[in-house]
Structures are given as C-alpha cells and as structure tokens.
Amino acid sequence: MTPVLTVRNLHKAFTLHTIDGRRVVSLEGVDLDVATGEHVAIAGPNGAGKSSLLRCIHRTYLPDSGSIVLNRADGPVQLVGLPDRAMARLRGRDICYVSQFLEAPPRTGALEVVAEAARRRGLEPDEARTAAAASLRRLGIEEALWDVDCGVLSGGERQRINLAAGTVRPPRLLLLDEPVSALDPENRELALNLVKSLTSEGVAVLAVFHDLDAIRRLATRVLRLDGGEITAEGTADEVLGTAPERAGTGASS
Amino acid sequence: MTAQLTEPAPSVRDLVGAASSAAGVLDEGAKREIRRAILTAVCVPGYQVPFGSREMPVARGWGSGGLQVTLGVIGPDDVLKIIDQGDDGGVNATNLRRIVSSVAGCETATDTRAATVIQTRHRIPEEDLGQRHVLIFQVPVAEPLRGVQKSVAECVRMHAEADYSAIWVSLYEDIVRNGFITTSTGYPVLVGGRYVMATSPVPRWDVPRLDQAAHLSLYGAGRERRIYAIPPHTKVEPLTFDDVPFEVEHVPGARCDYCGSDDSFLVDAPGGRYVCSDSDWCSRAVAGRVDAPAHRERAPLAWLPDRARRATATGYATAPAVPPTLPAGQNEQVPVSAEGWLLKVDRLGKVFGDGGAAAIAGTGPGHGTAVSPSTGAIVAAWDVSFDVAPGEALGLIGESGSGKSTVLNCLVGDERATAGSVRLAAIDGGESDLLALSPQQRRRLRIDTMSIVYQDPAAGLDLRVSAGGNIAERLTAAGWRSYHAIRRRAAELLDRVEVPLSRMDDPVATFSGGMRQRVQIAKALATGAPLLLLDEPTTGLDASVAAGVLDLLRGLLRERNVAAVVVSHDFAVIEALTDRSAVMQLGRVVESGLTDQLFHDPHHPYTQRLVAAARR
C-alpha cells in the first residue's frame, strides 16, 4: 500500500489575543500515516483535537510545526509551509475535506455547490453538472431541492450535500469530520456505504466519527487521540474494546 | 505740458485715418506670429495651435480669427474673395472684404476661379478649388471635444493621447436616440489619421470635399485663440462607425429655384423654395459659365441618406438578435509569469505628506499610528507585497483607513505610489515596473488590461450617458468601430449582469444604486481585461441589493479566468469572493493566508478582533 498522507510531530496551539493572550494547546506531536485504500478513523473524547487535526491537514488551521506530506502521482508535497496558492490548488482536487456543517456560499443551491466542487476537479461546466447530479442522487437528495438555497434545507440534507460535494469525484485523500452525525438511519446507510465504496476504490480516508458503529464498519485502522496526542493505535476492537451489542460513547443513531 | 493741453485732441476720424494710411490692422510682428502658428498648424494637420489673438475692428464672433489669418497671409498680388454662408453680398462679408482689401492693397473678386485667398464662414465654394487657393475659415468653436468635455486641460490631454472615446460615445448616443447622426454642422473629422478636428461649422455636405483636397485650408478662431490647418492632399475622414454610413443633408427632389441645380448645397428660401447657398456658383450657372458635369463629380452624392443602411436604434434594446454569449471566458489565454502570477506587487508604499521613506519610522501597527512622528506625513500603505494568478481572487481586508483602497488606487494609477513596484505578466512579460510608466501609458492599461470597479458607481460611469453608452466608451477606447458589434456586446454584458435590456438606452442617472453598480461591473468586463480590481463593490448598497451584486461577482469570477483583487472591510464579502487574503492595519499587511484559514484561525490580534466582529 502506498502511503498517501504522512504526518509527523504535528503541533498546534491557539493564542487568544482577545483573552489576554491565553494559549490553548490542541495538538502535541501527532504522527500518523494513511495509505491508498485505507480508512483511518480517529476516536477520542470532545476537545481531544480530532477536528483540529483534520483542519491542520486541510490548512483551515495553520499548523505551528511538524510535517504533513501528501504523496501525489508526481511525488511527495510538503504541506507545512507550502505557499497558499499551491495549497489552494490542492484543496478540492487532491484533498477533499467534508466538515460536519456545510459551508456553502449564501444563496446557492445544492446543484451549484456540488457542480462547483466538480469544476474544481477540472471538469467542464456541463460535465460538472452531470457529475453533481449523479452525486446528489447517490446520496438521496431529491431533485426538487437542487436549486433551493442550501441555507434553508434541513441539517441532514445539508450534511449530505456537503458529502456529495466532497465525493463528487474520488479524491486522493478524503478528510471526513462527523459526516453522518445529522442523518436518519436510512440516509446514514447511504452515506456509510458511499464512504466504504470510495475506500475500496483506493481513496485514502481519514475520518472522525463519534459513532463507534460506523468506525467498526468502515475503519481499517483506528487511532485514539487524547489531549492532542495519539494514545492508542490498532484495529477497532483493539482500540475501542470488543463491541458489545451497542457501543457507548456518543453514538448518535 | 501747456503746449499739449492747448493742442486739440485727435478726433476718432483722425485716428482711423492714420491707421488706414499706416501698414495695416496688424503690425508686422503680429503677422509674423500668426504665420508661425500657421506653419506649425500645416506641419501638424488638425492640431490646434495657440496664438495671441488680437483685438480686431470686428467683434469677436464676427470673423475676427479668420480675419487675422487672412491678414497674416495675404499680399498685394492676391485676389480676395470673402463669403458668408456662401454669399459674397452679405453685410459682414462686404465689410471684411473692404477692410482686408484696403489694408492689403489687393484686388477682390466674387468669382471663385479668379480668387487666390478665400475667407469663408460656413461654406466651401462649389467651384473646383486647387493649389492656387487658400481657404480661410472663420471658426466660432475650435475644440471638437468641447461638447463632451468642459475642461480645457482635459481636452488637451485627450488630443495628446488620441483618446477620443468620449466623442465616439456622443456619436453612439446620437444614433441610439435618433437612429442616425444628427450633428448637422461642424461634424468632427479625423485629420491625417491623428487629430480629431472641428470642421468649423460647414454643413456635412461639404465635409467630403476636405478629403485629399488640392487646396490649403486654414482655420482661425479669434475667441479661442487657435489656428489649425489641413494641408493639401491630407486624408480627412468624418468620424463614423464602420456600419453606420456618413450622410450629407438632402431634401429629395429639391432644386435651386434660380439655376435648377440639384447637386449643389441648397438652403431654404421664402415660399417653400430652395436656392443655392453659393451665390457666385448659382449666378454663373444661370449664365451657363460653370462646368456642371465636373461639379456633379465633386458633389457628395455617394453620401446621400439611405434609410435602408441606417442603424436600427432599438434593435438590441428589446431582443438581442444574437443570444448573449460572452467571448471573454476561461478559454482565453492569459499571460502569466514563470512563477504563475499575473500581477505582482512588491513592497508598495504610499506616504501622503513630507518625507517619503524617511517618514516611515514610528508608524504602523507596532506604534499604533499611521502618522509619522518626525514629519507629520500619513503613511497610508507601506511594504505591501502580494501576487495574484489568473483564476484567483485575492482579498485585502481591514477597517476604514487601513490603507487597502490606497493600495488599489496605486495599482490602477489614481494615486502615485511612493515606493515599491507593480508588475503585470501582460506587460513586457512582467519585466517592467508599471510605476515607472508615464501617466499616459498607465491610462492605456486601463482600457483592456486592468479594470476597476469603484464603491461609488459615479466614479466609474458617466451618469448622463446611457448604460450602453458607458460600455461603448470602454469599447471605442479599445478600438471598436462597429456600431452593431458595440450594441451586441453591450447587450450581452448588460444581460449577464442582469440589467434589463429595456433599460440599455436610459441614462445611468435614472438607475438605482444596485443597477448602477451592475452597469459599472459590465463596463469593467467589456474588454475582457485579465486583471479586475474591486474596491468595496457592495458597500454602498442596501443588504438585499448588495447580496445580489455579490452573487453576480462570485459567478463572474468563477466563470472567467481573471485575476482579481477585492478590497473590503466586510469579511462576508472577502469570504464569498476570494481564495487568499491579506489583512491590513495602519497601512501594513499584518497577516495573510488562505481566506478560510484567516477566518477560522486568525493569528494577529487585529485579525482576531476583526473576525470576532464579523461573527454574527
């Protein structure tokens, strides 16, 4: 398996100048690898730094130090210190980040949001709309909602639109932050199956789920993150303990 | 003293008598100056040469300019003819003829063939003019741009830079309003392919006679103190769009009541009749002493009005004949530097006040002030660097007074930068510093290389001109000369920015604020400039209108391969439009990064305050 993402000794802290320069440490030397076709799940309590880790890789947060290497077809790219423009070009093309909440421009419809994501992948406008339509259908978004302002749709619909945009074309690296937290069981199945099929197509997935059932079904490997450090690594059973009928913490469905 | 007092004061009659027995109305020095101006005017066809216009024994506006030119060139061997509206017998012509012939000691004639110097008001004689003729025009308004530009200095600049788009817009507006060009006299012409000139007020009928004429034409404007000329065999073209023909005045079926001519310039006479304007020509035609076939050859019959060829004024205002498609799209090849940028700004600085770079010490965010403690100068921007690639939008964000608009003004040339360099990949492959170019060269860049959209639409538009005319201004500046192509392009652009085509021909002054801003955006896009600068494009608009304009801009930036710099104090605008941003405070860039990173993970205290303020 080819490594797609290699993170070493990643540090991130926030200095809050508005509160007398208080310092909040988020990540303290994280190491991890994700290879093609691998689904690495990050487990851990609230505030452990799970989302921060994904955001540092996507540069929604600016890492303080460490190394984040993305292996592309034409060689490895060091993302820490990469010029903003180059980073902007990797985003949405090689790296897709699906956050928990849809961050779409105001007053745009689902089809436009997803088609724009497809265009960033290099598709022509017509192809992009076709791909966007397919992606929305795959996640069960009714056609009648495609041109409705995303801002007025339900939480579950918005979450699926977000996932549709992130997966409109299989990226090299897919970062998922609680992508099914607002979904009903039926739609949750659709979404989880989609992620599973992408992994089997060779996409490297790094995901944060509170839903332990989802982790057990999808993850090829699990990391426990606690207090900004990786405290355990292994299979789902090794890290989370053998599954009872229903796993405890934070399972939302 | 006593002796002088006892002598009788000279009477007016004595003074006039003394003057008429002396050398002339003008002394030799004045004539020499006039001849010098004439020589310059002949050397630079169509260019208005200033001269020290003297008081004449006729009132200003009664031919004083023509009279000075005539007195400057005429000699005792010349034969003088003076006409007023083609008529040798008018009171004014008669008086002027008497003055000139008496001081120059020359013969006079009414027969054009016998004359060598012809002074005229408002006509070119019907007779063939040749090398032996000097035609001198009395000019009431020398400046062809006067109607579109009140500032004398600005007119001079426009001539110097051959920047005639304003006059093209006035022609465009005339056709839009009337279906054809209604300017009847003093029609603007391009002389020798360089200067636009007012044809004194001769009728359009006479304008084709000026092209490649064998005679010398001199123009004297006494009130405006200008002399200009058309040397023999000079190309003279009336300004017309390629697809809207120039027309001369014509009343179908009209003939001169005296000589029966239908190919000379006719004027109304009492009783619904028409008569020749040129009295000499007409009387000789009656007597059969003219070469009528040769005259017919000279007559501008090729330019008679033809309704079939006229532009349909409202053609595109109701329904575009061609469905709107925008040619300037992402497929266009945009030049970039080896590093991929289209625009590169390096250590740009602007200091208002004394001291230049010496005023910098003690200013900036670290000192909490933009005012130099040493010189009192205001350091509006300093050490600002960024670059932008095609297909990318860069935001400049900061509160009022942080220097972001100053940076934009320095880029576009509205302000002169104090320090730094600005490079464009489209200019010398990015080798040249734009700040080192002349103001003229920088203004040229604004035609089709960089466009700016101002916060206030009045800064980027002429509110008296129609929406289409404002776009025509940019297109004609870029060399567009097809009326229909201009209309089609303007319609496409207005359609794209969602301005109803039914409003295309209305003055922008009648538009709402949001609609004006849309027109300004359409104008900025007109020539497909690869660099677009947006200065608070939605700030002056109320919320729902601002949202519409913001959505429009987002769509435009997405579909076009332009490099954009967006200045705003509003994080929502920057977030919607840009990929990368720089945060400015007190004239300095305090932080830059990916726009969403700046919003989610601001590092600088100022940015954190800005983000906190933006969260609603």
Report what the structure shows.
The complex is a heterodimer of chains A (253) and B (616). By secondary structure, chain A is an alpha/beta fold. Chain A has one domain: Rossmann fold. Chain A has helices spanning 50-58, 84-90, 110-120, 125-138, 155-166, 185-200, 212-218, 236-240, and strands at 3-16, 22-35, 39-43, 65-72, 75-78, 95-98, 173-177, 204-208, 221-226, 229-234. A six-stranded mixed sheet of chain A has the order 6-7-8-3-9-10, with helices on both faces. By secondary structure, chain B is α/β, with parallel strands linked by helices. Chain B has a seven-stranded mixed sheet. In chain B, 33% of the residues lie in helices and 18% in strands. In chain B, strand 18, helix 18 (543-559) and strand 19 (563-568) form a beta-alpha-beta unit. Chain B is elongated. The A-B interface holds A 14-18, 55, 59-62, 84-85, 87-88, 103, 105-108, 116, 119 and B 340, 389, 392, 547, 551, 554, 558, 572, 576, 579-580, 592-594, 596-597, 600-601, 603-605, 608-609, 612.
Strand order of the largest sheet of chain B: 1-9-8-5-4-2-3
Major beta-sheet overview of chain A: 6 strands, mixed
Order of helices and strands of chain A: EEEHEEHEHHHEHEHEEH
What integer value in Å does the Rg of chain B equal?
Answer: 31 Å
Work out the count of structural domains of chain A.
Answer: 1
Biggest sheet descriptor of chain B: 7 strands, mixed
- How does the helix and strand content of chain A classify structurally? alpha/beta
Low-confidence stretches of chain A: 246-253
Biggest interface reads: A-B, 21 and 24 residues
User: Which regions of chain B are unreliable across 5 or more consecutive residues at pLDDT < 50?
Assistant: 313-331
Helical fraction of chain A equals 25-40%
Determine the N-to-C terminus distance of chain A: 33 Å
Got a strand count of chain A?
A: 10
What would CATH call the architecture of chain A? 3-Layer(aba) Sandwich
Strand order of the largest sheet of chain A: 6-7-8-3-9-10
Average pLDDT over all residues of chain B: 91
Mean pLDDT of chain A: 91
End-to-end distance of chain B, in Å? 93 Å
Strand composition percent of chain B? 15-25%
